[in-house]
């Protein structure tokens, strides 16, 4: 079973990694590991408990140790389909379904970890006037099959010290060109 990536921190972590594979319309990012866990929920000290304290003992005894955890999926998938590349909701939904189907088809050959598929360019509306056309569906399916095949069989690119997603590029250093007001 393929899990879902839902936390923004996990999306940032995966998108800051190098692209594993890319095509005309899509890019695939990959990071080995598991999604981050939710932090503890902090209750306000002034809030009284809604229910009286309950016993933590199970009425049926201890759970067997061999019970697998719910989040033990080997692969997690996140999708980034921005509105600027797919204006109509029916197109975004079609693309998401195609990505999920392609991931399920190639899951056995992909390594375990976090996978994010990003739509990086729009489909030509002149060529595909209908958002749910068979031609658009076939093109997306073919491109995603090639993309996941390449992602499964290509080695990871060497690390080049790339900045995390949203970080400063090679522009001016922080504070460069800003006058120092404390020096006067």
Describe the structure concisely for a colleague:
This protein has 184 residues and is an alpha/beta fold. It is 25% helix and 14% strand.
Descriptive notes:
By secondary structure, the protein is of the alpha/beta class. The chain is 25% helix and 14% strand. It is built from three helices and five strands; from the N terminus they run βαβββαβα. The protein has a five-stranded mixed sheet with strand order 1-4-5-3-2, sandwiched between helices. A hairpin with a 3-residue loop joins strand 2 and strand 3. Helix 2 packs parallel to helix 3. The C terminus is likely disordered.
Features:
184 residues, alpha/beta, five-stranded mixed sheet, 3 helices, 5 strands, 14% strand, disordered C terminus
CA-based shape: globular
Strand order of the largest sheet: 1-4-5-3-2
Compressed to H and E, one letter per element, the order equals EHEEEHEH
| DSSP helix fraction | 25-40%
Question: What is the average of the pLDDT values?
Answer: 77
Distance between the termini: 64 Å
Question: What's the multimeric state?
Answer: single chain
In terms of per-residue confidence, which ranges show pLDDT below 50 for 5 or more consecutive residues?
65-71, 159-184
Largest sheet: 5 strands, mixed
Count of alpha/pi helices: 3
Radius of gyration, in angstroms, nearest whole number: 23 Å
**Structure class:** alpha/beta
Number of strands: 5
> How much of the residues is beta strand, in percent?
5-15%
